[in-house]
Hints:
This protein has about 290 residues and is an alpha/beta fold. It has helices at about 5-20, 25-35, 40-45, 55-60, 70-75, 100-110, 130-140, 145-160, 175-180, 185-200, 250-270, 270-285, and strands spanning about 115-120, 170-175, 205-210, 225-230, 235-240, 245-250.
Amino acid sequence: xxxxxxxxxxxxxxxxxxxxxxxxxTSGEAARLVGWHQxxxxxxxxxxxxxxxxxxxxxxxxxxxxxxQLRELLVMLAGSDDTGGRNHWWHAxxxxxxxxxxxxxxxxxxxxxxxxxxxxxxxxxxxxxxxxRAVTRAAVDGLPEKRLDTLVEVRLARQxxxxxxxxxxxxxxxxxxxxxxEVGGPGVMSRQLARLxxxxxxxxxxxxxxxxAAGAHIGVTGPFVIFSFSRTSDLDVVVLDHLTxxxxxxxxxxxxxxxxxxxxxxxxxxSPEDSLDFIAATAAxx
Length: 286
């Protein structure tokens, strides 16, 4: 397990090395093409040192990579500071959001698919403004109202990935406790459950409820998120959220273990259709 920036450097380096190899270029030739010393290319490829967005663009040009989506993804991994583009809107909140949260948002904005197990609260991408405010207020004690407003604003802005031209494919397993825990009062919870039913009607959103009747399951150890990227599975990553930080798992064995765990949860959860009925029944007080 490693923190986000380290994982991102390693993933970026591995992908750049693969692209260089595919282009039939040695590290020495790559260094000459971009006007660097060979040691700089080696440090970037091994993840020993980071690469600036401009460095990544130079290397991609040298390797003849013209796939716009792949270029954007790799520049994102370098930590693009381009605040003018839609995909980097979160940089405007540098003074408010911790680096781990910015890392999460950047991955979320560039991923093609997201699989998540939630055991306590509704996933951020599906929260109503009222619910998001209540959850944030409870999570951070004594939060000034202005800062609370900003964090809720960020939470809602993240939801644009579900309305994009190529929307994020979201598959979420919700423990029954998520539906039963009253957050913000009965009215807030009622509107939140209605929002879940509305979101589930989208073709790229799949919700399944894991009822208490399913008993103990592999997800009892806690929630997790799996991000997948359409251009290369080498960039897939598991994110485990903690109170003060996030951990990223990117080893093949970790990804396989969490993928198998998520698939197992799907078999124990209610079907999407039955899950909608369950949510509606919960909202009705059944």
